Amino acid sequence: MADTSSNKKHIVILGGSYGGVACVNKLLRNLSKDSNIEITLIEKCDARYHCVASYRALVQKDFAKNLWIPYTNLFPKGSPHRIHRGLVRNIYNDHVLVAPIHDGTSESSLPSSELQRINFDYLVIATGSMIPSPAKWALNSSTEGLRKLDDARDLIVQSERIVIIGGGACGVELSGEIKYAFPDKSVTLIHDMPALVDYPRFPESFKEEARRYLTNHGVEVILNQRVEVEGLSRENSVQKAERSIKLQGSDRVIQSDLQFFSIGIKVDTGFLSTLEPSPNKKALDKKTQTPFDAETLLNPKTRAVKVRPTLQLDHDAFPHIFAIGDISTADPVPTCMAAVAAGETAARNIVKLIRKEEKRAAGHHPHYVHNPQHDHQHLGDEAESVDRSDDETNGYSCRSWNKLEAYVPVQTLMVLAMNPTGGVSHLPVVGSWFGNLTAKLAKSSDLFSGRFWREMNMPRP
Ligand SMILES: Cc1cc2nc3c(=O)[nH]c(=O)nc-3n(C[C@H](O)[C@H](O)[C@H](O)COP(=O)(O)OP(=O)(O)OC[C@H]3O[C@@H](n4cnc5c(N)ncnc54)[C@H](O)[C@@H]3O)c2cc1C
């Protein structure tokens, strides 16, 4: 809880995965000498889930040890920083309410009065997204996650004709991994678009190479077919049943005994509905003069949190609240590399805001006029294009300490790891696809496991 009796600053990060941990690490590097800073990471799971490696762990049991990384060494021993295990239920202007988690489950019906209150001066929302399992699991315990993964692997072993519905990056990787690990099983990927991985800014040659790679490795790829399988959905995304899947516009029927639903990314931003400007701020929208409505902070289609280039929420009343990674609108294509970059940008901006407050307290005034009615207004009113010149000891350069950094969406390096030996990759600089070697070097062999275990200061198992 924030220490209101002193001038300690409490930074709270929600979600301890790619974005959240990158933010924590950057803050630690910038603020290690500050005794008046406390960081709390709130996370519902007992270990960090490295979802990028999930499909390899699905087909290769001994790889599963890479998936959940303990938080034990994230913060230095004896530091005031801590991990708080809990499910964030509500966000307010200066605190969050968190449901405790016991034995991997949280009491969903717990009344607000029994939730834990954690105050903050700065907040970073990094609670990510849900992608149908076995990519991500709607659970709070690594033990349960490993058990579910074992169950799904057993289903693959018991099946002969496997159908995957959805040919985005996840469906493509899932089909490739299954076919490589179980070459004797038939694997069919059905996609409703004319091309696989049909994301903005990726060249046709890359999409075509993904299709060619899978086909060459024995996966049947069926495009332009929208099929519905009874009972198969985002929530029930792995189903073991005998199914005859009829293709539209032809007499063909695909027989299958195991189906995966691999469509769509979803964010849960319900916890923002309680957010309101602090009473000493005007709660009226400047343009329309209507009362504040938290709904305006969300993209109406995706429900992602709208952020400014500085990654602060897109409203003047919340310059002390940031959103990063999949939960935010910061990147057109949500990726873990984007979440990491955004986490680091948010951390640098928070450091700048803290330094600015310190300077102000010490009587040094920046050149803009401060409006005392808006006590946080001064925190985010200027962004510069990109200035990453902050040094790691004091967090700002003298030239730019009163300007926040504008986040630049990362150049999308897309690597489709289809098996341990290769896949297809798209390098933005060169603008085209590359095959096995690039994919293997960049991702396929260990799926970034070494990097993210190191980031958590943990020896690789
Ligand atoms: C199979 C697969 C392969 C991928 N491959 C790549 C790749 O090669 N390159 C790439 O860049 N990206 C890849 N991605 C995408 C990447 O994994 C996501 O973009 C990334 O996970 C986003 O990170 P994040 O930190 O925003 O959120 P997440 O990884 O979703 O993490 C959110 C964290 O918040 C916690 N949380 C959520 N809600 C709450 C709550 N209410 N209270 C407390 N804690 C909460 C969760 O437990 C989790 O730890 C891949 C994804 C998958 C599934």
TrEMBL record:
The keyword Cell wall biogenesis/degradation does not apply. Keywords: FAD, Flavoprotein, Oxidoreductase. Residues 10-337 form the FAD/NAD(P)-binding domain. It comes from the Eukaryota. It holds the Pfam family Pyr_redox_2. This is Apoptosis-inducing factor 2. Residues 361-394 are annotated as: Disordered. One of its GO terms (molecular function) is electron-transferring-flavoprotein dehydrogenase activity. One of its GO terms (cellular component) is cytoplasm. Belongs to the FAD-dependent oxidoreductase family. Residues 372-388 have a biased composition (Basic and acidic residues). Signal peptide: none annotated.
